[in-house]
User: Which sequence fits this backbone?
């Protein structure tokens, strides 16, 4: 891509367009892959959190995944009905309930993880293996960085500062 091409307004130079295309392709394949899980991708995210070495309570899972707490409660109920997760008292705080994957949940998570890895490999297939690893590393850095920002404050403020103003010096 030449400098002139980037300046001419082509969509393929726009970060939003690039992210949107990749996101839509991933979501379409992931929805198909995760269709048997309650909540699809959100259910998978909760299951992933429940499989982790350090289980979290609903508040921690809501914060980490960005899933509304009310929606999360229903989602955990649905996963619990299928015996994929269980709520257990937190030994550090008996008022808090940890969400932990059951053996059946761990097996289901592993099967879904392998299927999603095939989806990811397909999406990254235009890249060399080395470039795919680099892309994943860079995306992880961007995602983790964005997760620590207040997206409604910092990013909007940055966008506002980047906009030209209509105010011009008085003549």
Assistant:
């Amino acid at each position: 891509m030449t400098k002139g091409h980037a300046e001419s307004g082509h969509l393929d130079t726009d970060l939003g367009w690039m992210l949107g295309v990749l996101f839509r392709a991933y979501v379409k394949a992931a929805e198909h892959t995760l269709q048997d899980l309650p909540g699809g991708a959100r259910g998978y995210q909760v299951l992933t959190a429940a499989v982790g070495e350090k289980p979290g309570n609903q508040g921690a899972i809501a914060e980490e995944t960005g899933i509304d707490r009310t929606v999360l409660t229903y989602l955990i109920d649905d996963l619990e009905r299928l015996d994929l997760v269980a709520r257990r008292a937190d030994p550090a705080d008996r008022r808090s309930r940890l969400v932990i994957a059951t053996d059946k949940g761990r097996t289901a998570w592993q099967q879904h993880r392998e299927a999603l890895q095939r989806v990811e490999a397909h999406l990254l297939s235009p890249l060399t293996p080395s470039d795919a690893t680099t892309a994943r590393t860079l995306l992880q850095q961007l995602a983790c960085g964005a997760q620590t920002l207040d997206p409604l404050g910092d990013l909007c403020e940055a966008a506002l500062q980047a906009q030209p103003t209509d105010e011009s010096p008085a003549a």
User: Anything to note?
Assistant: The helical segments are 3-7, 15-33, 41-51, 58-65, 69-81, 103-124, 129-148, 151-162. The CA atoms of residues 72 and 89 lie 18 Å apart. The chain has eight helices and two strands. Confidence is low (pLDDT under 50) at residues 167-171.
